[in-house]
Amino acid sequence: MRRVQVTRAPRAQAESPRPAHERDAMHWSQFFIPTSKETPKDATAASHVLMLRAGLIRQVAAGVYCYLPLGYRTLRKVEAIVREEMNRAGAIELHMSVLMPLDWWQQTGRTEAMGDTLLRLGGPPGDWRSQTVLGPTHEEQVVDIARAFLGSYKQLPINLYQIQTKFRGEARPKSGVLRTREFLMKDAYSFHADKASLDEGYQKMYDAYCRIFGRCGLPYIAVEADSGPIGGDSSHEFMVLTDAGEDTVAISENGDYAANTERATAFFEGHRDGETPGRSAESGQAAAEPLREVHTPGAGRVEDVCKVLGTTPAQMIKTLIYTVTQPEPQASARGSASEPQAPARGPSAPVSRLVALVRGDHDVNEIKLRKAARQLCGSANASIDMADARTIEELTGAKVGFAGPQGIVERFRAGDMLVIDRDVTALRNAASGANKTDYHVTGVNPGRDFPLAPDDRRPYVLVADIRMVVEGDLSPRGSGSPIRLKTAIEVGHVFKLGTKYSDAMNATFLTREGKPARFIMGCYGIGLNRIVAAAIEANHDDNGIIWPMSIAPFEAVVIALDPRDDHAMEVAAGIYNELAAMGVDVLFDDRDERAGFKFKDADLVGIPLRVVVGKKSLAEGVVEWSHRRDQVKHTLPPAQAAGHIAGLVRAARQTSAALS
RNA sequence: CGGAGUGUAGCUCAGCUUGGCUAGAGCGCUGCGUUCGGGACGCAGAGGUCGCAGGUUCAAAUCCUGUCACUCCGACCA
User: Mind listing the pLDDT tens digit for each residue in A279-311?
Assistant: First the structure.
């Protein structure tokens, strides 16, 4: 740090306005905090605006930011908390490499699964660069370590973690630091000999995460999550509820249920009678009406149709057509070094059509639908896409907007599928498209007009939960509590991975019986930059950031209001020095600026505690102090100031520690 | 990847429609002075390849073509 000074010294000595020996970096006049009054053009999220205005970060490129000193101080504090709690939970820190061989990713099949998200170095074919990737996550590398060094059950369980910069070819970076191409992540990987040990390790991480986010001052909740392409059977996400998030969380009002909408499910009425969804068709109270065609010219959208038919979206069946693509069975994944860019899907990949039925007031959850499709066709890698207009017209015989379920299976080819949402099975005399342009039908009845179960001729029929939950759905716990939807930032994620990676990379250890067995794994991630952004989203006002003490770049700021008044300056500097000596992270605003200017800066930057030393209050024998959060001014004699503030800092630190 | 938009000083933007003289303002920055408890003021300054490349023209920030970057919506997203 001093080195910078030394190299500058010869030139600076004569005329530098601040000679080296007088520098104290924690004097605001000499620190580096480029604040700005202007709201940056491109920032919409509060955290993004404030991080730029408070001089925490600077954008380098889309989704790439550098951390300026103030931002870096906070990031480092977050890092320290994460490290402390991981160590406390028995995890062991290591540092893996960012560059790694493409080969590993081909072994686990994730070259394809991650697609463009996996960043490659490029370079001519055969060059080492074309065989090297920038790590977006480190399962492959840590499994490689495990298969090399973990040979015995005696070494298990073990949890290895790192805090590392990750790279992802994010297609659309957004919201400042919330979604970027380069970011700092804590990723941990646990290895277990059996399922019970995994459950234990998972719970340990879950608890550690609660402590971490609690200590960082985040109002978080843990929700059930979809485990995504990474696979695995159980997973929770740690969410901070804020406007800026890009995830949506379903929470029941009484708090007995919380899940990411990717997987959230609602209470199904059919359960009440103990009915199986497929059978409820026969038990309807209303008499089944015959199908009746109604002319509905131009009414392709649900609302339009309702108007014409005088019905409600909840009484309609929405018929959506998808295509299902099953990739060719993985040809030899190994040794394809000569052709690393092998096309993900050959043109010959078999494509079948899938008809999905949901109620008119519901939307399809494509993650659930994909799961259903995979179950039906038995291919774990099958993908689904909305069908194009031609496919739809071919299947329904009508223009887009007039598809209906009745008789649709008669038009099926081998391999086509029908997936019916549970809630559709409960409908009686519903309305739907007529499979005839400009016509709809009423009196559609599940079971009579379309099958609810597979038979010999149509083996691909499935009733499942394939819809998004909506506001007002009831908690699936059966408590009757309504579900609310909230946007949230995902700050952490814990998975039970199982043997997905140890299988793919053939990573084994020897059991007590001397037989090789695959590691059972868990993996656990935390986005450190997101913690910073989420903390700001959750803690700010019109004037700026309100840092939680635990991650504030400085815990206290001493503002000298009259730097030209020797006495006032002396008192202020004295308090600053005392605080620093007491181990408080303190910044000294010694700048020769007007009072309002400095107050605004202090508010913007968000330091939790503020001491103001000015001629005016000094004349009354006091200095002022206040919390950033409530701005209420208190006074006390200068001699007691440092001691009091240090006490407040200590108390806040203890509160944070008490969470753990 | 699809749709929309924007690139002019460190930051926020005007100028472009209808080509024309030395390319402007505010904030910030430098100097001097006044001011000094909630983002002061005066005077004097520094700072710009008008994203880049090509074209049209006597003449291009302005018109045309291409290209790059960034932002927003969507698709995508351990």
Answer: 444 445 668 899 999 998 877 677 778 888 888
Q: Check: CB of residue A467 under 8 Å from CB of residue A364.
A: yes
Q: How confident is the model at residue A77 (pLDDT cuts 50, 70, 90)?
A: very high
What CA–CA distances, in Å, run from A269 to A49, A347, A474?
45, 43, 9
CA-based nearest residue to A247, from A44, A490, A535: A490
Burial class (CB in 10 A: 0-12, 13-18, 19+), A600: middle
Helix, strand, coil share of chain A (percent; to 5):
35, 25, 40
Three-state SS sequence of A575-587: HHHHHHHCCCCEE
- Residue–nucleotide distance: A2 CA to B40 C1' (Å): 37
Assigned token pair, A55: 């001089």
Distance A153 CA to B48 C1' (A): 68
Domains within chain A, CATH numbers bracketed:
77-216+496-533 (3.30.930.10), 270-329+345-464 (3.90.960.10), 554-658 (3.40.50.800)
pLDDT of A211 reads 96
Closest to A84 measured CA to CA, from A170, A270, A267, A212: A212
Closest CA to A585 of A657, A650, A651: A650
Work out the pLDDT band at A232, boundaries 50, 70, 90: low
Neighbours of A1 (CB within 10 A): 5
Residue A650: enclosing H or E segment and its boundaries? helix A638-658
SS (H, E, C) A528-544: HHHHHHHHHHHCEECCE
Contact between residue A385 and residue A356 where contact means Cβ atoms under 8 Å apart: no
- In strand B, the nucleotides that come within 7 Å of a protein beta carbon are 1-2, 11-13, 26-28, 35-40, 69-78
Q: Phi/psi at A532 (nearest 5 deg)?
A: -60, -50
CA A660 / C1′ B77 distance in Å: 33
* Per-residue DSSP letter, A413: P
Q: Nearest nucleotide to A110 by CA–C1' distance?
A: B78
C-beta separation of A250 from A484 below 8 A:
yes
DSSP-assigned beta bridge partners for residue A239:
A221, A490
Which nucleotide lies closest to A595 by the C1' atom and the CA atom? B37
**E-strand spans in A139-224?**
158-167, 182-192, 220-224
Distance CA A112, CA A333 (A): 11
**């909506």: which residue's tokens?**
A470
The residues, any chain, with a CB within 8 Å of residue A326's CB and separated by 6 or more, are A349, A350, A352, A377, A379, A381, A382
